[in-house]
Give the backbone structure.
Amino acid sequence: MDHTKQTIESLNTKLISKELSVQDIVDAFLSSISQNNKEANVFLKIHEDFIADQIKHAQAMIDDGKATLLTGIPIAIKDNILIKGQEVSAASKILEGYHATYDATVITKLKEEGAVLIPRANMDEFAMGASTEFSAFGVTKNPHDSDRVAGGSSGGSAAAVAYDMSVASLGSDTGGSIRQPAAFCGVVGLKPTYGSVSRNGLIAMASSFDVIGPIAKTVRDTQILFDAIKGIDPLDQTTCEQEYSKKEVKKIGVPYHFLKSGIDPDVLEVFNSNIKRLENLGYEIVDIELPSFEYALSIYYILVPAEVSSNMSRFDGVKFGKKVLGADLTEDYFKTRGELLGTEVKRRIMLGTYVLSAGYSDEFYRKAWTARSTMKKELKEVFEKVDIIAMPVTPTPAFKIGEMTSDPLAMYLADIFTVSANVAGIPAISIPSGTVKRNEKDLPIGLQLLAPWHEEELLFNVGQKFEIL
Amino acid sequence: MNNEDIKHLATLSRLAITDEEATQFSKEFDEIVGYVNKIKEVVSDSDSQIIESNEVKNVLREDIVSSYENPETIINEAPDHQNNFVKVKKILNQ
């Protein structure tokens, strides 16, 4: 039986009963890596010694009777999450050769469980992008069609699961970076509530939006990984207690006004059949109005570049990674940043500088913050009428490599259905929900479910009923 | 936005950019800023305020110093270092 097709719980049972060793399991996934990684560019680098040490540690935990659900389970880690002593670059040349000096809180938690971490899953540089085409180290190919992108920014993390290179993975989601690649690759991805998972040790992109989350083949595996990484952390002051209402989902809202244009007809057809399926499962579908969703992208592309321009100022060639020498210190800054940062990162730093500059910050930044509060208020009201919301994840299936890179605005518009959850801070999950045919190939489509703050459980409950295993 | 505007933004951002990049960004920024301008249609000047008093609360904790083993590993990750210090070029000219 193929070990790479099994769930966390099934692998755990076999590890405990000694039917399989940790080595057996990890070898099965490593063999897919050695078979596919060269072509697919899912991982930037594999450090076999680091993996071998973890296998020994996990097996010892099992032999000592101290195993947990995640002991010995291979988990891919996005290249913006720090693992002490391991290389990490956020797929940027400016951090090439840099080694993390501490463990991210999520990594500490996974190490305690004896998970086998497989770092350096490819991504867009500093998580800015939606296709991994902005990685300084090449694009990750879509597992269903190698002419297409795996999505992004957590493209490596999603593709790792789809290619059977890991059971599950960690990504980060600032505007759709977990859900969109999960949808493009045909796997499950969760963007948790903002503050439910510690950002300590995540290389920051936009601090009031970023959240680390899990990707896996099933909703249940996604839930297991989320439960392992969530929680209050003294090292991240924005983490907060999760309070579940434990209510049962009855009504699902659909903002039909938001689906009238800008969506591929085949994708809309899949979505409509998904809604039928939810109805058949016994849920009541309610047409809801969310006017603020119509300008969510404007809010997003004002506030995110603003936060990016501030967060990226730390990369100055002095403290981390690489530098390019100039005549004096100021020229060192200009050359290091100018030569080692990619086009998209520069674009966002400069956009952020623009919206924050004197005379414009009132027009853009302040107004975007006001609109952000309006959206949260609107969602609170809607969640009094419905328990969760359903939407597509993306307006199209995975696009072709190179199709969008020359038109940044078109690439930004592709985030239309995902950014709202980040602007509001609510949890959202992407679940494989069908396929559309393009050039004789079946490309996966995802269904997105959004819940009120801290109500991930509702997503898992409905998601498990909806998914077809 | 013309190339001069873009170059000014690049200077503020401490980014060396080429003339080709400036031309490319100038076209793209007009499109992107044109798009995000939508925000002005939905938020009037008088509505514009940053309020979240009921959503955001201050989180405090004791500032306790804990030790870090081998601080030199942090220094060693800096591009230029010497005798356990990060090395920076002189900032003030005499």
